[in-house]
Amino acid sequence: MKPATFEYHAPDSVEEALALLREHGWDAKALAGGQSLIPAMNFRIARPTVLVDLNRIDELAFIRRNEDEEGDGGPGPGGVRIGAMTRQRAVERSGLVAECEPLLTEMMPHVAHLQIRNRGTFGGSAVHADPASEIPAALLALNASCRVRGPEGERWVRAEEFFLGLFGTSLEPDELLMEIAFPGPRQRMGIAFREIARRHGDYALAGLATRLALDVDGRIQEVRLAYLGVGGAPALATSAAAALVGEKPTATVVEEAARTAAEELEPMEDMHASAAYRSRLVEVLTREALGVAAERASNSV
Amino acid sequence: MNATGTVPIRVTVNGEPYERSVEARLLLSDFLRHELGLSGTHVGCEHGVCGACTVLLDGEPVRACLVFAVQADGASIGTVEGLASKDGLHPLQAAFKEAHGLQCGFCTPGILMTMVAFLDEVPEPTEFQIREALSGNLCRCTGYQKIVEAVEAAAADLRGIS
Amino acid sequence: MSSRYFGARIRRNEDEALLTGRASFVDDVQLPGTLHAAFVRSDLAHGLVRAVDPAPALERPGVVGVFTAADLGEYWQPGPLLVPPAPIEGLTFEARTQVPLARDKVRHVGEPIAVVVAESRYVAEDAAEDVIVDLEPLDAVVDVRAALADGAPLIHEDLGSNLAAHAVQTKGDYDAARAAADVLLARDFSYDRGVSGAMENRGVLAHWDERSSQLTIWDTTQAPIPIRNGLAAMLGLSESQVRVVAPFIGGGFGPKIMMFYPDEVLLPWISMRLGRPVKWIEDRFENFFSTTQERGQVHEAEIALRGDGRILGVKDVFVHDTGAYNPYGLTLPINTQCTLLGPYDLPNYYSEFRVAFTNRPIVTPIRGAGRQQGVFVMERLLDLAARELGLDRAEIRRRNFLSPDAFPHDHEILFQDFAPLVYDSGDYEPALDKAIELIGYEPAGTTPSDPAGGRPAEEGADRDGASRRTRLRGTGIVSYIEGTGIGPYEGARVRVEASGKVCLVTGVGTQGQGHFTSFAQIVADQLGVDVTDVRVVTGDTREFHWGTGTFASRGAVVAGNACHAAAVAVREKILRKASEILEVAEEDLELAEGVVTVQGAPDLSIGLGELALRSNPLRGAVQPGTEPGLEATAYFGPQRGATASGVHAMIVSVDPLTAMVEIERYVVVHDCGTVINPLIVEGQIHGGVAHGIGNAFYEELDCDSEGQLHNASLMDYLLPTATDVPPIQTAHIETPSPLNPLGIKGVGEAGAIPVAALFVQAVEDALKEWAPGLEIRDIPLSPNRLFALIEKARAGGGEEGP
Questions:
Q1: Partners of residue A7 in chain B, C-beta under 8 Å
Q2: Nearest-angstrom CA–CA distance, C527 and C2
Q3: Which residue would you say has higher pLDDT here, C462 or C226?
Q4: Strand C595-598 relative to strand C420-423: parallel, antiparallel, unpaired?
Q5: What average pLDDT score do residues C1-7 get?
Q6: Which residues fall within 8 angstroms of residue A68, CB to CB, at 6 or more apart?
Q7: Measured between CB atoms, does A1 come within 8 Å of chain B?
Q8: Residue A233: pLDDT band by 50, 70, 90 thresholds?
Q9: Which chains touch C (3 or more CB pairs under 8 A)?
């Protein structure tokens, strides 16, 4: 279990990294935290011939408040921005994240184990787009936007357009994820993260991240239900969410939404869980998460 | 830095500076064990699950099998060999001996390095917090119970000292 | 016997080296000029080897050699049959043992075809990919029943079938018992495979030193002496030219026994050809194919009872999966057959097994070694019987226990050590009572299920939102016996050195069981020295010539008693010599704290170091027949195994919607005879229980019908972690074994044996109202399988027997 040979580059700047990616094209692979890539290389499942190590690019590691950056096309003020090379543990420990996006704070301890989170990066996990991992689902639930830079300059991509199927993203081989911006809290908003894994730190059998907002009458104004572990990509239950809008989150309504989610997601089957079992987990977890999020939303005023 | 051959690196391990030239693909775990002869860091899975190779990279526990040695250039690394002092075992090591927190001892160095950092951050952990922090380190011999007891005892001891 | 250390919670002598990273494991041994090996392995479960072309690999810089079966010449031989079959009447047995490199055929995924030797493991792995292997696929057979069906693909064509063995053992007359029974219950059961999961993978470093004509092999083996003997014979060397060292071993659990694995056989040969040290360290991926596995069996069982719950008889017919080869003979199915009888007075027994070859990795013992399966079948039958008869689960066991005056109890069948299965001693009811008390079991019918709400959040109840779900609680309680400490023998040599310290040498290997301490305790008590002054040397054939190894929970029993015997002999020498020097009768001497003193005259004394020096005169004449030194060697071989026993109990809480199970409490009441070191015994039990929990609910090899394994990683093969194993409460019952002077019974495997049987009983108890009729008959269980069973039971399809 030793990796095959590769050419190694450790640029100090984004520009240098982009130049290397452009030069080597499909042969090159960007190395972020490496906590998924290096195991795959040790198994020789992944064998990039050129590695562009991003760990020396300091400008990609930050957590800051979204303030005067409206001009860059990202979401407006109020939220938080997380640099792509920010270690997952830094996100977990960040007071700013806890304040602006508590869903992330609630979710991060479920991401593998602390030794992995010490090295693994927030953006690396997003780009890896493992359908069973937590961070992509959180991006979907929170309606995050990704700032991507390539040879043609920069663009913002909403999470829904960023993730494309199994381990796929809309990132081109010569592009880099720079940062992820979250729109931030609003009044009467509640979040919840729930997952079921075989062992603590394992990829979940199923899980979801949800965020909902209530109107002044206590009706659901907006809700997103984003799932991990259920299919070939991090997935939104859009029908279930649509049916919730305008309703009060009563037990019956929540129950019905949970059933709808389980139906619309058509979960996959693998050695750890049948499709029927995953549907059940989706139903149970959705019910719980919606209950918690609604409770938090009504308490948040 | 641009090399297909070897890359010169400088690291500090347990306070000692080292300079070596390494192949880019050399894993940090193999570098420590075979290049530096610090074989206390063990290798159990080489895919980041068992935790036996856990070392401190700039103070934080990481899997040495999931870092290339070249990436550690300029870093400070802590391994199990650096825990004890001239005066004897580190309180955590002493607690493991006292509580019978190890059997074959293969997973132990990785557990010690994880727990040293954990107790630094959480000086008064509950049993559950300890178990959760331990969950990234596999042990097949002990059933974990006496490891948990050892960490509880070490936490108390360390609080007493500081 | 003075008793300063025996029975005390002594901290381990070996810990300091292990805790500071100084302890040397096989891969820590570094010799200058070492080459590294990597294997080219079959990616098919069954196929013909058409061609192997090493040429492209040889062109790669850094590659020193590539070897195939054709290169081995006369050295290519199937491995030894490690355990000949017990002389069971009417037995059929065919041995087909593993080969060093596949020559004509591959019979399981991962079987080695060629070995590449290079300047580094990295390069060796590169070059292993260069070797061109042409295999012609054959149909594979993976399912153990299918393997015995007519027309199944033949794994060893010359046999004409895949039947490796067939045996029947009986006691009494089962058919008569059946005819007389008030209740008959029949069910099928299965128990699937897993890996041993030692944290250290296997490894070998072989070094042939041309100048001294010495071959040294560092090997992760539990049995260095048999490996030395076998390799010397195979290589045409004297045993004195071969030294096998098993240094610190990172867990064994069975598969590191004297297997003569291909790597163990090939590396010394390669080192002799190349004249350089050669190292192979198994990686975790290889481990799933190149190290032996265990536990695949399918059973059809029937129990016959009287209306009051007394067992009249049991019939059990099973098939045992031995994988592609069967070097370990019949140890496993015989253990299953014998252990099924449990602590019960079971007058009529019919047990029949077939052993089948399959296209899967080789099966040899793993911690428990066939016993789990027997216990699972028996305890499940009793649970069903209790349910059928409306009896309490503890009560049905109590009614069938052998009484304390029933020992020795002859079960009239043969055990794995070829000796009759005779229980030496035991007392089962007190263990049951103690377990009931500790777990808080209420034996009136079954315990009520109550939601486990209100648990504090810090206990993790809210970790995955579980506190919002209804959880149902269930209790389980099972009992079992374990034949431990079998022969043939082990030896030990004890020597007092001029420093006054003691050197103890024994032939068994050690993999973390604390032998450096428990053996030292035994000797320290005899010689009146501090336990830290006894240096234990083990696992090095240069130090001790005779012995077998660590397996079958026998280290403490067999080697422990050898250490004791040698220490007793040295103690006699000490007192004799001191008596000569001090001119005082031996009876008037005392030996304590490293000094022999005359009773009542404390000024008259002599230290052990001084005595050792004077026992080894370097000038002058000695009496004819004088042996130098304060040293003795002794051997111990028990007449047969000592029967340990225990009762385990647990409380689980089950989320009936998600089928997630949490173990809340676990109690073990165990009888391993006299206890040398309670700290170590507890550790052994804890580890065994954790292993059993893994087997019951987490660990599973996902192998398809083509023999391809889909989860060869610790990511997907789930070893239990610290959050999966509950705190375990232990208590001891002590019935000393009359079969050895120290009264010891083995404990290394005990914890693992009854866990699956217990786990499913507790889960069924928790779900008895939610999913009436739910029966769990297959191990491993998983949340996924439990979910399916629950849904089926709730749909009214509660499974009935066949």
A1: 2-4, 24
A2: 10
A3: C226
A4: unpaired
A5: 76
A6: A77
A7: yes
A8: confident
A9: A, B
Does C20 reach chain B within 8 Å, measured CB to CB?
yes
Go through C223-248 and write b for each residue having 16 or more CB atoms within 10 A of its CB, e for each that does not: bbbbbbbbbbebbebeeebbbbbbbb
Residue C186 bridge partners (DSSP):
C302
**Average model confidence (pLDDT) across chain C:** 93
**Contact yes or no for C465 and A288 at CB 8 A:** yes
- CB contacts of C11 in chain B (<8 Å) are 97-98, 100
- Whether residues A118 and B24 touch (CB distance < 8 A) is answered with no
Angle, CA of C258, C261 and C267, to the nearest 5°:
110
Contact of C326 with C361, CB cutoff 8 Å: no
A201 and A173 Cβ atoms separated by less than 8 Å = no
> What is the dihedral sign for C-alpha C603, C607, C612, C616?
negative
Tokens 């070939």 -> residue: A232
Residue A284 to residue C463, Cβ atoms within 8 A: no
Half-sphere exposure of C724 (CA within 13 A, CB side): 30
Residue in B with minimal Cα distance to C20: B81
Phi, psi (degrees; rounded to nearest 5) at C57: -70, -35
Chains that touch B (3 or more CB pairs under 8 A): A, C
This prediction has a pTM of 0.96
Chain B residues near residue C122 by CB distance under 8 angstroms? 23, 25-26
Size (chain A), residues: 301
Match 């004249």 to its residue by tokens: C275
- Residues contacting C280, CB < 8 A, separation 6+: C36, C37, C38, C39, C115, C203, C204, C205, C263, C267
pLDDT in tens, C547-587: 988 777 788 899 999 999 999 999 999 999 999 999 999 99
Q: Which amino acid is at A61?
A: A
**CA Rg value for chain B:** 16
SS3 B8: strand
Q: d(Cα C231, Cα C239) in Å, to the nearest integer?
A: 9
Query: B142 near C722, Cβ under 8 Å?
Result: no
Preceding peptide of C268 cis, ω within 30°: no
Determine how β-strand A145-150 pairs with β-strand A153-158: antiparallel
The string of pLDDT tens digits covering residues C326-359 is: 999 999 999 999 999 999 999 999 999 999 999 9
A291 shares contact with chain C (CB less than 8 Å): yes
pLDDT of residue C95: 97
The neighbour count for residue C671, using CB atoms within 10 Å, is 28
* Alpha-carbon gap, residue C134 to C761, rounded angstroms: 50
| Cβ(A108)–Cβ(A137) below 8 Å | no
Chain centroid to CA A29: how far? Answer: 20
**Mean local confidence (pLDDT), C262-279:** 98
Q: If pLDDT is split at 50, 70 and 90, which confidence band does C443 have?
A: low
CA–CA separation, C12 and B102 (whole Å): 10
Rg of chain A on CA atoms, in Å? 19
Helix residue spans in chain A (DSSP H) = 14-24, 37-42, 88-93, 95-100, 102-107, 114-119, 122-128, 134-141, 159-162, 238-244, 251-265, 275-299
Instruction: Give the chain B residue nearest A89 (alpha carbons).
Output: B60
Q: Which amino acid is at A68?
A: D
Nearest CA among B70, B59, B58 for reference residue B27 = B70
Are the C-beta atoms of B4 and A5 separated by less than 8 Å? yes
Tokens of C376: 């699972």
Nearest CA in chain C to B26: C122
Helix, coil or strand: residue A76: coil
CA separation for the pair A224, A237 (Å, rounded): 8
A27 in contact with chain B, both atoms CB, cutoff 8 A:
no
CB atoms within 10 A of CB C166: 16
Interface TM-score (ipTM) > 0.85: yes
**Residue A183 has which token pair?**
């729109």
Strand (E) or helix (H) holding C600: none
